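Need Epidermal growth factor-containing fibulin-like extracellular matrix protein 2's 3D structure for a figure. Predict it.
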Amino acid sequence: MLPFASCLPGSLLLWALLLLLLGAASPQDSEEPDSYTECTDGYEWDPDSQHCRDIDECRYRYCQHRCVNLPGSFRCQCEPGFQLGPNNRSCVDVNECDMGAPCEQRCFNSYGTFLCRCNQGYELHRDGFSCSDIDECSYSSYLCQYRCVNEPGRFSCHCPQGYQLLATRLCQDIDECESADHQCSETQTCVNFHGGYRCVDTNHCVEPYVQMSDNRCLCPASNPLCREQPSSIVHRYMSITSERSVPADVFQIQATSVYPGAYNAFQIRAGNSQGDFYIR
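Structure prediction for Epidermal growth factor-containing fibulin-like extracellular matrix protein 2:
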């Protein structure tokens, strides 16, 4: 084994053999191999159990909202209305309106959520998403002068026949005589009244009166039959609205005479059989 062993004394030879045996039995390094102490990412060495144990990364608050610890790793989660950002840790708002939010009409995005709103004339249903039509006509009887008609999202005012809508809510009489939208002949006069018109004969004069204009008859002073008659008669038509509070003045007339000391008398000649009208 040793080429020089035969040259050594017996005691020295024994000592050299002991040193060789001790050197072969002792390790070169007293430290443990690295494979015993090194752990993979997400683990740390537990000296008590002599094993690698999982690191709870969530205790370091790496996530903006919620953290879920996993074996050897962790995962961040966001609250509803948010999604993970590019770094997989922070949370950014989700625009639900661009992602098909269930709003029936209008959608408004807000931080972490969204709001549904309705167009004018609608109100939000209790479910928070759908819209119901508002019946404006049921809230007030003064929206329209004549009749209110509810429509989807709005209302409209209607007028009776012979009237036209003024602005959006009032009714105005159509003057068929002025607009020539009538069926009166050339020998008739068109008389307009609220909601319609009437054709009357133009010549109202009866002997001994002679016609001076469309509505004025004159009794000539040279005619003996005119001595006890009014000198002139003027025919006028007026429209009187119904359901008026009474008593009420319908019209006022004032007589003038070219004769000094003349006496003027007024009376209702016809059309007052029930005594609805009187002179004062």
